[in-house]
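Re: [ENG-882] Designed sequences occasionally contain unexpected residues at chain ends

Forwarding the minimal case from QA. Structure tokens:
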């Protein structure tokens, strides 16, 4: 919600054709996000491991849920939205040469894989293999930026007809009802997951099959709640909004 307040700082210069100023403000805000995350973790040992660390309470209260440490995906998304709006103008050709499109897709996939799997060996092979504290701090500071950049290219490529079979897959009609529930699932999933974990009476074992089982259960549970949240909260307010706009 707070991010909408800073969005005009980027959009107004872009709309006024002050592209360089808009990009500079965007980069500055992303740097604030990265630096604030880095310093918060650096000066509070044990928080760099997130919820698995000795200082997980600090990580959750001052890194995980604070807007200044989570703003980079929103900021990057605002800029990508502006680019897509600009590219939809009549006569604009957004086609990317095959070699560059292939390269960009590989970079996006590698960034996603890096964000998801780079810490896997750290957890799986501990204590024979273990990243240093500064490595974890760098990961926590940059992973959201890298993930947002990768997802942004996937969205851009699919929207500009550079997505190939990936765009066709994401255009599958089965995703339409799920996409309408996505916002309600986003709002409800954290409460559902926290309730599940906080009510357990025994320790968890970090095994692959256990985590897959928990993931599927949390996903289905979150979307089950999202159905009712969408029907009784989101949909009525959307109807009221349409009435007031008319």
């Amino acid at each position: 919600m707070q991010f909408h307040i800073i969005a005009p700082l980027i959009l107004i210069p872009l709309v006024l054709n002050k592209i360089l100023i808009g990009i500079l403000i965007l980069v500055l805000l992303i740097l604030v996000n990265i630096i604030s995350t880095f310093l918060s973790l650096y000066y509070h040992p044990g928080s760099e491991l997130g919820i698995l660390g000795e200082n997980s309470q600090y990580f959750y209260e001052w890194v995980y849920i604070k807007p200044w440490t989570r703003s980079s995906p929103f900021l990057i998304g605002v800029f990508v939205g502006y680019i897509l709006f600009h590219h939809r103008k009549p006569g604009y050709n957004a086609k990317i040469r095959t070699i560059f499109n292939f390269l960009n897709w590989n970079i996006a996939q590698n960034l996603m894989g890096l964000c998801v799997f780079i810490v896997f060996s750290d957890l799986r092979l501990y204590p024979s293999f273990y990243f240093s504290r500064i490595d974890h701090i760098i990961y926590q500071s940059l992973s959201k930026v890298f993930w947002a950049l990768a997802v942004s290219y996937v969205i851009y490529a699919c929207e500009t007809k550079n997505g190939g079979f990936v765009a066709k897959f994401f255009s599958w009609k089965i995703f339409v009802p799920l996409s309408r529930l996505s916002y309600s699932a986003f709002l409800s999933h954290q409460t559902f997951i926290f309730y599940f974990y906080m009510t357990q009476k025994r320790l968890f074992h970090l095994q692959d099959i256990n985590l897959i089982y928990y993931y599927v259960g949390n996903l289905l549970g979150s979307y089950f709640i999202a159905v009712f949240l969408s029907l009784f909260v989101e949909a009525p307010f959307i109807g009221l909004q349409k009435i007031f706009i008319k």
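QA comment: On inspection the terminal residues look reasonable. The two ends are 24 Å apart (CA to CA). Proposing we downgrade this to a documentation issue.
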